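To make the argument concrete, we let one protein speak, a sequence paired with a row of structure tokens, as a model reads it:
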Amino acid sequence: MKLIRTSGPGARRAAAVLDALEARGGAALDAVLPAVQRIVANVRKRGDRALLRYAAQFDGLAGPAMLRVTREEMASAWDSLDPALRAALSTAAVQIRRFAQRQLASTWSTSPVAGLISGQLVRPLGSVGCYVPSGRHPLPSTLLMTAVPAQVAGVERIVAASPKPAPETLAAAHLLGLTEFYRVGGAHAIAALAYGTESIERVDKIVGPGNLYVTAAKRMVAFDCAIDMLAGPTEIIVTSERGNAEDVASDLVAQAEHDPEALAIFITTRAELAKEVIAEVRQRSHGNAVAREALNHNGLAIVASTIDEARAITNRLAPEHLTVDAASDLTWVRNAGSVFVGRWSAQPMGDYISGPNHTLPTGGMARVRGGLSVNDFVKLITVQEYSLQGLRSLGPKAALLAEAEGLTGHAEAIRTRLRKRRTKGRDRD
């Protein structure tokens, strides 16, 4: 983990580092794009024939009969799970569900002027695919974070896809009552979900994180099948003036162990605290190879000149996970996927059980969106209903706007109705 200062002899280097961090994003996807394009095109054209070949090659799928996980397998995985872990998964599911229920947008209507009723309908998507990575670690929490909000939204068909799914993930699927689960991953799984094959019906939207191949495939299919976001390596920033070095370091190491490319940054104005955090990180990551690699390559302690500068840098980098000292800090936070407040708010609590979603924007995308939510699984349909009174009130103005744009047919569609007379004291429909 390196220390840089925004002032003094190292200022120029620090500026270059910050410029590079701000520009981080999807450049790494370009390296795998040719391979992904071939895979996606083959699955789209050849369906199961290509999907099963890739699944055997990359996922170790034993044969076509193993593609779909049976409900009995999911139930068996649940039954064989340690009771304490079953309880933990159940608690996490409840927390995520309660939070999603509070997030859900509502149907409403209003009458802004006499004779006009306008509003919105909230309708669920028809189907979604929940991608669950299964690489270094089983991630049943990701299945909960993607499938539970979809259930709260009312999505009728929820499909899970995961290569070599761990028993814990299958157990989580049983807990949620999922019935459609496929043992496939990578770009070929994304292609199957986006375009469909003989065995897997296409979905309306794909959600969930994945490796470079998964992310590149999601970017490629995004014009044909909706996606949530392009999730890159895990990111954490801790911005603190009075944090405890042990607490800060433990969160940095925790997020760094997700991926050798993870980004872990501590921002402060206190040089001594920065040095303490670096020393603590070095000690705590000693036996954690993945975290150590990430912190060696992408770990930074940034010593800012002022508190305002520290805050500005934080917002500029728009981190996936952000920890701040106190609730009063929320007033200056503009860009972050999820914020953790105070020393007791260990970031891994948000990964599992707090309730807010852990599928969060990376690569600076927190500038424009937040994490996955129940509202990613619904569409808002606007509604407007006029009476003749309302049309007479607003119609002439709308017709003028149409004429100003040279759209005379628009204006005539309004004026045709305005020329109509009342019949027997009632507005004609």
Observations:
- The CA atoms of residues 186 and 232 lie 14 Å apart.
